[in-house]
Here is the input.
Amino acid sequence: MSKGRESKPHIGIYGRRNNGKSSLINCLAGQDVAIVSDHAGTTTDPVKKSFEITGFGPVILVDTAGIDDSGELGQKRVDRTLRTLEIIDLALLIVTNNSWGEYENDLYAKFITNDLPFIIIHNKSDLEEPTADFSNQISSVTGSSLLEFSSLDKRNYEQLITLIRNTIPEHSYKTPALLGDLISYGDIVLLITPIDVEAPAGRLILPQVQAIRDILDNEAVAIVLKEREVDSFLKKTKIKPALAITDSQVFVKADASIPHDIPLTSFSIMLARFKGDFENYLKGTPTISELKDGDRVLLLESCTHHVSCDDIGRTKIPRWINNFTGKKIDYEVVAGHDPLPRPIEDYSLVIQCGGCMITRKQIHNRLRIAVNAGVPVTNYGMAISYVMGIYNRAIAPFVKGKSSTNTYL
Here is the structure.
């Protein structure tokens, strides 16, 4: 399950079967958006519901299967439930009947591992209220207070909304500017956008659209043109842009066309700084020079897409790295949230795509296993600029004190 185009905060609802997870969603939504039944296991797979919580704002609630599901099929449902932890900004753990056991302990441990904020809710309190001993147990085990709640009589509803508002990370619903710290009122930003076989028919790719919108939001001017028009445009207009942003695939052409006193970067590096693990990208990118024969490189695509014969991640980047290093390197590609084919320690480098279709949290969660294992990480645009010899120029707009010459090469 991926956040896809949804940038709203994602709130996951977790708990055992028949604990009232779907009822809680309906209560929060103020309408029947989830199937409710007296039979345990009604929700079989994670389901996303988009609506506005009164008093908070628009969210995506993710209804999940019970963590105590059984049997071979049930275990697959549990696995899908646990995979949603990668996309969640806040977890609501639902308990009932003063019951806390192995299932809840395991889920709580995963919250901690994923650095995931959570709220523990004792639902169906109209039938059985939480005891003082149980509340103390929850506080002792998790360090979190237990909220008494009932989807039927809505007791403590406003308190739950306040908890959601106070617990969910600010970055989940406040989006920083892509370029706002780089441009000023009236600045001209040149966007170099090649139209090739990978460009979607009749439209621009999402990072290009995001850049245009952000430029306009910052009261600046966006000029969009193809790479072969750059030289003529600059010569005829005498315009000196405050910033130029290019598609990574035409970095070399853009580097030659854009005077070196004009900052130049790529859409992918723009996204890397915006929501990627930029600091670790900066550390990991130069390790491309250290790759050896037989090393494995993992390429992470964060969405599924049609694969062309000259695909940027599956074809071009491996070819460019091979030409740059002169080594025989093995490449593996993992799309979406598919599991890794081997232990992360088997890789010498991980290259993450721009991540235009997912959130910052998803990218960081995806890369955390590599970072924790000491495996270098980078992203498509930064890797491309490095092997093309213009890495420092490409990152300079976002990194103080960097020259426009690639001192790593």
In short: The radius of gyration is 24 Å. The domain at 277-387 is CATH 3.40.50.11410 (Rossmann fold). Residues 17 and 41 are 5 Å apart (CA to CA).
